[in-house]
Amino acid sequence: MSAVAEPLIDYLRQLERQGETHVHLDGRSRLILREFFVRSRGRSSSLVSQPQAAAVIAETKVEETKVRVAELASKPAVVIPTSEAPVQQAPLSKSLEGLKQQIAEDSGLKSLGTLRDKLVFSEGEVTSDVLLVGEAPSYYDESNGKPFSGPAGKKMGAILKAMGLNREEVYMTNMVKYRPAMANQTTNTRKPNADEIQASIRYLMAEIEAVKPKVIIVLGATAAKSLIGADVPVANMLGQFHKVAGVPVRATYHPSYLLHAGATDEKRAVWKDMLAVMELLEMPISEKQRGFFKKK
């Protein structure tokens, strides 16, 4: 196998192991991959240059294409031109402390220029059956150095207490480990963008592999869409279990959303999700717990 092609093939196989079945390709990527395919069949063809690819794309309406990861990973290896070679990423640590260090040293995250400087890693029991995933650190998370701090954290703590759990018994983390930056930023926080999530999600997958939870609770639309990856509206993800890397995943509202007045229906939906998680884990459920937020 070509030393240059190997990182791409390894990356595709890693995605496949994580449960990914498709990758998105734009027009330029399809042109490049077609050239690789032609070369693998032994036919002569001049590689489409970047200017040529740009010209073709400019003249046609380009639509994203979904390509099966397994198909790409199984293609014969060919020599990839150096200018198009992917940057080889170092293998991720299997320990959480190692992952934390790798995130802190990740130049790719820093080069985005859209994230603040303070790393907010995880908190809680590293062998927990329950793994909570939020979107990105808030002002309070950044100030305290812990995920799920401040009012939203207190709300999450109350939900866990109602389940018969406490913060120390679960593993809490965020999709993106740095607070997204904004102009004239004070206590306000925005949702992470696609580039920030793409640069961060491999670390989350490594966390899941290290913790080995029995269930994942993903909080908030952005985190749910990014982790589950289903091509459906977020509303259609609610009220059911999904699978990510072989682990059941339940998507629900972020606790910060429940702080808004009049969110009774959403609170009821969240509690229904928590009951489903408790049933999955075979936790004892009292009649009082089943009666929380029940319509009169």
Automatic annotation (TrEMBL):
Pfam families: UDG. Its EC number is 3.2.2.27. The keyword DNA repair applies. Keywords: 4Fe-4S, DNA damage, DNA repair, Hydrolase, Iron, Iron-sulfur, Metal-binding. The keyword Transmembrane does not apply. Coiled coil: none annotated. GO terms for biological process: DNA repair. CDD domains: UDG-F4_TTUDGA_SPO1dp_like. GO terms for molecular function: 4 iron, 4 sulfur cluster binding; metal ion binding; uracil DNA N-glycosylase activity. Residues 121-275 form the Uracil-DNA glycosylase-like domain. It catalyses: Hydrolyzes single-stranded DNA or mismatched double-stranded DNA and polynucleotides, releasing free uracil. Transmembrane segments: none annotated. Signal peptide: none annotated. Gene3D superfamilies: Uracil-DNA glycosylase-like domain. InterPro entries: UDG_Type-4/5, Ura-DNA_glyco_family4, Uracil-DNA_glycosylase-like, Uracil-DNA_glycosylase-like_sf. Belongs to the uracil-DNA glycosylase (UDG) superfamily. Type 4 (UDGa) family. NCBIfam families: UDG_fam4. PANTHER family: TYPE-4 URACIL-DNA GLYCOSYLASE, TYPE-5 URACIL-DNA GLYCOSYLASE. This is Type-4 uracil-DNA glycosylase. It comes from Rubritalea profundi.
